[in-house]
Amino acid sequence: MFTLGDSEKVQIFYAKDKEVSFEISYDSQQQLLTVSRENIGYEINGIEETHLTKRQMPVDLRDSKLQIEMFRDTSTMEIFVNRQQTISMTFYDNKKGGDIQIELGNQSKLIQFSNGKIDKHKK
Q: What's the structural domain count of the chain?
């Protein structure tokens, strides 16, 4: 969870290494959340004329706070925002990055972070 000042940005680089990352960003001035697979994995081409590498959705802060919950399975990232909205994106990574990098503006704070793993039950 983050607190954000006016005109602040938050960027999260997931599965990051030197060359690749799945990117999630929020711009508080535009109130816009963006997810991008531009810098990770194989290019995914559909029938669209313009290939989709980014998705965006408007998100209002709640008491100057932004809560982001991310869940990843093999090829999909599900992102839940402020317990009210969700956005997802498929990606197929060809190089495994293991780091998470968070960049905040000067007035923003990371107030809570947790990382977990769901294990499959073996029979």
A: 1
Q: Rounded to whole angstroms, what are the CA distances from 85 to 43, 57, 59, 60, 95?
A: 26, 9, 8, 10, 29
Distance CA 14, CA 98 (A): 8
- At 8 the pLDDT is 83
Which residues, including other chains, have CB under 8 Å from residue 114's CB and lie 6 or more apart?
none
Q: What is the pLDDT of residues 4-62, one digit of tens each?
A: 877 788 999 888 877 788 899 999 889 999 999 888 877 887 777 777 889 999 999 88
Domain range spanning residue 77? 2-108
Q: How far apart are CA 15 and CA 89, in angstroms?
A: 14
